[in-house]
Write a structure and sequence with these properties.
CATH superfamily of the largest domain: Immunoglobulins
Largest sheet: 6 strands, mixed
Oligomer: single chain
CATH architecture of the largest domain: Sandwich
Order of helices and strands: HHHEEEEEHEEEEEEEEEEEEHHH
Distance between the termini: 117 Å
CATH topology of the largest domain: Immunoglobulin-like
Number of domains: 3
CATH class of the largest domain: Mainly Beta
Radius of gyration: 49 Å
Structural class: alpha+beta
Shape: elongated
Helix content: 25-40%
Length: about 400
């Protein structure tokens, strides 16, 4: 930049750049203060320091097992062990117990709560101790014994052995149980049956707010394992509109490890752009976890709903209404234009302008009608006067030259 005298003026530094050294100094001081902060407070560390893990113990019964699985007949027993390790920073006092396992309505595997009586494999399993105390970083083996009763029925029996911790939540008197466990699967030999019942099949249509997003056929059903063996369930849902239009399908969705005596609620959704009646078929394929167990027949159920995508229908009605309004406006404007054109032609003809053929023909017809009416009414006044004068015998006057 140059001054008025033409000499090079002083260089002006923008304000943000002048403040940059100060800003860098503040950042450096902040980083240094963070580095000098003490570690987390003991209260916070204690709250976050309670953690543990469980695993199987390698031995004659197997190595690297993810869970405990046994084949035991009535009256037989087996002794095994679970390894519990304190992975946190605080000492732990854990309760050890076994409980029956079941498949929840959502399809997950869970066990009975502490204090609820077990009636199956959880009742057969007895830990060697009820409580253990483990220091941080230490591990302890917890032996347990499974004794199958003499009257045990053939089939798959499931339970779990857990290590649980009771703790108060946010200083209140309500205690929350945190537990980790390993599944126990016991197969008692005998006749195995895979019998899954398909119940409470219901279908409904769910519309969306977006007219360009297809609605969904929602099918809800319940599966109950009435057999004595664990099964995997595979479902196949197919729907379509009238004449097979707008087909949709959910294929290959499965429910894994449905335990005997358990029920699961299943919800499937199929997108469809159909409007009106929608029908389809739900197919259930049951697959036992053991290939030696005969697979049952497929289960099928028909479903039907009436699809009413109100957002799309409302949009269509709005479009039709808009088209109707445009057509009415166009027709009215066209008629108005024709009337104005006719009025201009009529006005031009009245001022001596040139008439169109249609206007000329109309006027000629009007004159012919007027002449016809005059002839029918008789002679004119001039003709009557001439005849009167002739009847009086008066000579006609002539002008002299």
């Amino acid at each position: 930049m140059h001054n008025a005298s033409g000499r090079l003026g002083a260089l002006v530094i923008p304000r943000p750049l002048r403040a940059l050294p100060t800003l860098l100094l503040l950042v450096a001081l902040a980083v240094a203060s963070l580095a000098m902060l003490p570690p987390a407070s003991p209260a916070w560390a204690a709250q976050q320091g309670e953690a543990w893990s469980v695993s199987t113990v390698d031995g004659e019964l197997g190595e690297g097992r993810p869970n405990f699985e046994y084949a035991l007949g009535p009256g037989e027993t087996v002794t095994d062990a679970m390894l519990v390790k304190n992975t946190g920073t605080e000492p732990l006092r854990l309760r050890i117990y076994a409980a029956d396992a079941f498949t929840t309505s959502s399809g997950a595997i869970d066990i009975l709560k502490a204090g609820e009586p077990s009636l199956d494999a959880g009742l057969w399993t007895e830990p060697a101790t009820e409580f253990i105390e483990i220091a941080p970083g230490e591990s302890e083996e917890v032996p347990f014994t499974i004794a199958v009763p003499d009257g045990a029925l053939p089939g798959d029996h499931s339970a779990a052995i857990v290590a649980s911790l009771l703790e108060e939540q946010d200083g209140s008197q309500v205690q929350v149980e945190r537990r980790l466990g390993l599944r126990i699967s016991i197969r008692v030999p005998g006749e195995m049956t895979a019998d899954v019942a398909l119940e409470a099949v219901d279908a409904a249509y769910a519309a969306t707010w977006n007219p360009f997003d297809p609605g969904r056929v929602q099918v809800t059903y319940q599966l109950t394992n009435n057999g004595n063996t664990r099964v995997n369930v595979l479902d196949d849902l197919r729907v379509s509109g009238l004449l097979g239009m707008f087909p949709g399908a959910v294929i290959g969705t499965d429910v894994t490890d449905l335990l005997p005596g358990s029920s699961v609620q299943v919800v499937r959704e199929v997108p469809t752009a159909a409007i009106g009646p929608v029908s389809g078929e739900l197919t259930i394929v049951n697959t036992p976890l053991d290939d030696a167990v005969p697979a049952p027949e497929q289960l099928q159920s028909e479903v039907s709903v009436f699809a009413l995508p109100w957002a799309l229908i409302a949009l269509i009605l709005l479009v039709l209404a808009a088209v109707a309004v445009v057509v009415v406006i166009w027709i009215r404007r066209r008629r108005m234009a024709q009337w104005l054109a006719y009025s201009r032609r009529k006005e031009a003809a009245g001022e001596g302008g040139t008439l169109t053929e249609e206007d000329a023909a109309g006027r000629a017809g009007a004159r012919d009608g007027a002449d016809a009416r005059t002839d029918a009414d008789g002679p004119s006044e001039a003709d009557g006067t001439s005849r009167s004068e002739a009847g009086n015998g008066l000579p006609a006057s002539r002008g002299e030259g």
